[in-house]
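Progress narrative, work stream C.
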Amino acid sequence: MMVGTTFANYTVVQRLNHGGMADVYLVTDNQEQRFALRVLLPELRFHWKERRRFRWGCAVNRHFDHPNIVHLFADGKFRGLRYCVIEYVAGPNLKECILRADPQLRPQRQKLLIGMAAGLAHIHDHGFLHLDFKPENILTTLAYDPKIIDFDLAIPRPNRPKIAAKLSGTPIYLAPEQILRQPVDERADIFAFGLTAYEMMTGKKPITGNTLDEVISKYANFDQHLKPPRTHAPDILPGLERIILKCLAKDVTRRYPSMGLVLRDLQS
C-alpha cells in the first residue's frame, strides 16, 4: 500500500478508488493542498496498450481548461509507474448519487445538466470526442457542480462522421451508430449525454442489458423500448423531456447536431 508514503513529491493520504486500470489516491503537496493521484496498476506496467491508453488520456486532458472538466496538473513516470495528478473533487460520482437516490439530485439537476453539457461542448470545441460519457465518469463537488473525468477512450473529433478504429466504452452507454459500427461524430457523445440525463432524472436506464448482444437487440427497436422520462418522473418539465428525447433519437439526423445547441436549449 502507498498510503503514508511519498510519491513524486506528494504525500499519499488515502486510497480513493481501485479500478481495473488505475488506483486513485488522495494526496497533498508540501503546502497541504489536496489533489487526486491516479496511478497505473503495477501489474500493467509492462502492458504497452494500457500504458499508451493511460498516457493518451493524460495528453487529451491537458487540452482542457473548464470548470466542468477535472483539471490535470501533472503527469509522468515515478519508480516505473505511470501517473497523473488531477484536481481533487470531494463529492461522489453521479452513478453513486443515482444509486443511493440522493435527495439533492432533484433540486440540483438543472445545475448538473447545464454543467455536463457545458463541459462536453468544451471537449468538442477543443477537438475531441469523449466516447465514454456516463454517470460514473461525472464527479460531483459538494455543491453539486459536475466534473467530467476519464479521457482514456477519447478520439480526435473528425471533420466528418468516421468509423472508430475499435468498439470501446460501456455497452449500455454507447450510441446505436457505435454499436452498429457506423460512422460517429459528436452526436455519439450527445446520445450518451441523453442517456445520462435520463438516468439522473428518473433513476432508471432507458434500456438495460448485461451483454453487448442484448443491448444490440434492444437498439434494433430502441424507439419501442424508450419510454418518455415523464413516465417515470411526472414532475419533469415537458421542455426538458423534449431536450432529452432529442438527444436520444436513434436516427442521428434527428438528434441535436452539436452540444452547444443542447446547452442553449437547457439554458433557455
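Work stream C, second folded protein:
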Amino acid sequence: MDHLWQDTRYALRTIVQQPTFATAVILTLALGIGANTAIFSVCNAVLFRPLPYPQPDRLVMVWERMSRDGKLTPVAPANFVAWREENRSFERLAAVNPLVDLTLTGRGDSERIVAAAASADFFPLLGTQMAIGRGFLADEDRAGHDHVAIISDAFWRRHFGTSHAVLGEPLTLNDTSYAVVGVLPRAFQFVAKASDFQGRNQFHIWVPLGLNPQRLQRGTHPLRVLGQLKQGVTLNQAQADLDVIGKNLELAYPATNRDRGIEAVPLTEQIVSNVRTALLTLLVAVGLVLLIACVNVANLMLSRATSREKEMAVRLALGATRVRLVQQFVTESTLLALLGGLGSVGVAWGCLAALIRYVPLDIPRAGAISLDLTALAFSAAVSVITGLLFGCVPLMHRVSANESLRRSSHTVTGGHTRTRNALVVGQVAFACVLLIGAGLMGRSLWQLLRVSPGFRTEHILTGELALSSSRYRDVRHIAALQRDLLARVQGLPGVRSAAIAAYLPLGGTDNSWSPMFEGRPPLPPGEYIKYRPVTPSYFDILAIPVHEGRRFEETDREDAPAVVIINEAAARNYWANSDPVGQRLQIDGPPWRTVVGVVGNVRHEGLDAEWKPELYLPYAQLPYPNRVMTLVVRTVGDPMSLTAAVRNAVSETDSGLPLYRIETLEQVVDASVGEPRFRAMLLGAFAIVALILAAIGLYGVMSYLVSQRTREFGIRAAVGATSQDLMGLVLGRSLTLVFVGLAFGLLTAAALQRFVRSLLFDIAPYDVLTFSVVPVLLVSVALIASYLPARRAASIDPINALRSE
C-alpha cells in the first residue's frame, strides 16, 4: 500500500508536469468510453434488461400463423376463447384489443384517450398489483358487465389530482359512464413492440374486453394474446399443445380456420425482434471506435515510453525490479484511464440526451433509456481494463539498462516502431470497417428516401377524429357529420380542399377484408385485401392518379349504387387479362359493388414495402360504421399555421369531438423512416470519429518516425537526396501502412456484410460504389495526415541534424 500511495502521488505529479500528454489521453478515452457507455445504455434498456414482470422467461405472445406464408397475425375472439379453454400448457392466457377509441367528456374539453380492452387475466399474468383499488373481475369480462375502468398513474394525477377517493368515480367515455375500479402503479410498463399493436402500446385507460359468448367472431382478428407458461412447461411442449388445438379448430371450422395454425413466441424475443440486429450492429460499431481510441492512447504511451527509456534504465541500474516498474506504470495508466472514465460520464450523458431525441418510436422501452448504475459500472470496468492494459505498454519490449544508457536519444527502437506500425494498421482496418458500414447504411437510407410513396406530401395537414358510438350510431349519421365538417374546413382561408380517410398512408393502422369476386371461387383462407374508406376529394388532395374509370363523386352516397375503386396491384392480381372497370365484388356480404376506377399504388405499410392490392370505398357506403377517421387538409401555405382554425371548425361542427395527433403528412412520412435514419446517423457519426482518430494516429506515427530518423534523413540529404526524395520516403511509408490496413479492413467488412444484409434496402451488401469510395477516402486522409511530417523531413538541414548527434 505504501508503494501504491507513492506511485499515485508520482502519477499525479507526472500529469501536472505533462498536461498536454495527459489531456490527450484523458480526452481520447473519454470520447471512446463515453460513446460506448451511451450505446450500451440503449442496448441495456432495450435488449439486456429483463422485462419488468415476475418470471419473464415464462411469458409468451401467441399468434395465429398462416400456413401459406408463415405470417403471424392477430387473433379472432372465438379462437382465443377456444385456446383458453382447451390448452394444458398455460397458467393464464390473456387478450388485449388495442384498437379501442374512447372520447372523455364531462371533465373539461373533450379529450381522445389512448385506451385498450383487456381480459380479466391480463394484469395478473403480468404480476401487476394496483396502486389503488383492484383489477378486473372475471364477471366483468362479459358484455353488459364491462362498464368499469382501470386508469394509469398519469391519468389519475392529471384528472383526479392524486385523490385516493377516485374509486367508484364515474368517467364518461363515448357517452357511456364507466366506474373507476383501479389505478395502476406509477412504475407500470406495458412493454411491447409498437408495430404489434398498430403503434399503440402505451394506454391511459383500460376497460374489460367484454367478450359476448353469443357473438364470438372468427372472421375478425383484433386481439393480441399473451400467455404465462405453467411451471416446468417448456416452450416446445406448449407449442405441441397449441398445434393440436389448431388442428382441431381447423377441422371444426374450415371456413375460417383452414390453413391457420398457432405459434407461441417468447415475449422478450417478440419485443426486440425488429431492433436486435440494428442495436447490436451499433454496439459493435461503437466498440470499434473505442478500439481506435485505445490504439491512439497506446501510441501516445509508446511515445512516452521512448522518452522515458533512459529513466527506466537508470532505475533498473539502481536496483529497481521490473515488477516494481510495472506497478508504477500500471498505477499511472490506471489513474489516467479513471480520469478518462470520469470524463466519459459527461460524454455519455450528452450523447444520450442527443440520442433520445432521435430514438424511433418503434424501439421498445425507449423511455427507460438512462445513464443508470449498470451503465456507470460498464464505464468504470472499461476504464480499469484499459488502464491495466496500457500500463504494460511501456514494458512490452524488454531492453537492458546498459543498452538503453548507451543508445542515442534519437535512435529508433525497432520493437516500438513495429508495434506502432501494427497499431496504425489496426486503426485503418477498424476505420475502414466502420466507414463501409456507414456508407452502406447511408446509401440504403438514400435509396429509401428516393422511393415514391405514391402520393403528394407537401402542404397537407392531418388530424385524427374518434366519434362516439352513442351519437353516431350508423353510417348515415357519420356521413352527415363528414359533409358538414368538410364544408366548414374547405371554407377556411388558406385551405384548398379537405377530405377524410380511415387509414392514413404510413400511419401504422389498417384493416382488411376477404372479398368475393363475381363469377369466381372464394379467395384462399388467410388471403385478405386492405381496404381504405375515403371521401371523394381524397384522391385529388394526395394526387393519387386515376388510370382507368373515375374517382368517387358526391353522388356516391348511402342510397346510391354501391361502388369501389381498386389500385393497380389489385387490378394486376385479380383482373390481369380483363378490364376491371365494371366488374363486381362483395365485401362482407351484399350488396354487389361495381369497380368504377383504378388508381395508382400507394405505399401504406412502409416505403420499403411492396405494392399490395387495395380497395377504396366511399365512407357513406361502408357495411358498418367506422368511427375512427383522419381529416386531411391541403393548404396554400404552411399547414401547421392552420391548426387553430381547423380545430375551431371541428369544434363548431361538434363541440364534443376532439381533434388530436395533428401533424403534416411530411412528418408522417418522415417518422416512417425513423429507424433507418437513426442507424445511419449513428454509424455515420462513429465513422467520422474513427476517421479522425485514425488520421491522428497516423500523424503521430509519422511524426515519431521523422523525429527518430532525423540523423538518417540528414545523412541522406548530405549524400544528395532531394526534398522530394525525403518526402516520398515518408509518404511511401505512410501509404504502405494504410494499404495493409485497407486490405485487412476490406476483408473484414466483406465477411461482416451478411450480418447487416437485413438492415439494407435496395443496396447490395457488397456495394461496388461504397467499397470503392471508402479506400479512396482513407488514402486521401492518410496523405493529408502524413503531409506535415513528410514536409518536416524534407526540410531537415543535414548539418544541424548531424551536429545534434
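Residues 1-53+277-407 form one domain. No further action is required on this item.
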